[in-house]
Amino acid sequence: MKIAVDFDGTIVEDQYPEIGKPMIFAFETLNELQKQGHQLILWTYRKGRPLQEAVAFCEEKGISFYAVNESYPGEQVEGISRKIDADVFIDDRNIGGFLGWSKIWQLLNENEPEAQMIDFAAHTNHREEKSFWKKIFG
User: Fold this and answer.
1) Residue 16: beta bridge partners?
2) What's the DSSP call for residue 60?
């Protein structure tokens, strides 16, 4: 499976253009997904030096991406949309926010019983916020 992963706010805490602290279980989960044979694509707003720094940071943590900001290595992207071809997108800007790496692991491995044993609620880096509707209606 091709899995596109955002960097800031997803792999690391959002400190753009600096590199934030790694999110809890981010690199452990990405390493395991790579071991399972998934193709990881870094899909980020970063470009130039900040992008090179993000790629190098991930490589230091054992993650080598199949592609970076492209669907496959060497893809010609001039004049076409930046939307890439992936089966799954992991991003902190999803509706509902970032789920946390334990929950992502569970969702991607829902047919594996041992994956269900992780308490994902205990491993998120974000504070619990009221939903939009709860803020309005209590």
Assistant:
1) none
2) H
Answer yes or no: are the C-beta atoms of 120 and 99 closer than 8 Å. Answer: yes
Whether cis (ω within 30° of 0) applies to the bond prior to 17 is yes
pLDDT (tens digit per residue) in 48-96: 999 999 999 999 999 999 999 988 888 876 765 677 889 999 999 988 8
What's the gap between Cα 75 and its chain centre?
21
Check the CA dihedral 99-116-107-27 and report its sign.
positive
Query: Is the four-CA dihedral 49, 50, 55, 61 of positive or negative sign?
Result: positive
Give domain 2-137's CATH architecture: 3-Layer(aba) Sandwich (3.40)
The string of pLDDT tens digits covering residues 106-116 is 889 887 655 44
Q: Distance between CA atoms of 137 and 61, rounded to whole angstroms?
A: 44
Hey, is 78 helix, strand or coil?
Answer: coil
Residue 59 backbone phi and psi in degrees, to 5: -65, -35
Tokens of 64: 């080598």
Q: Is the pTM of this model over 0.90?
A: no
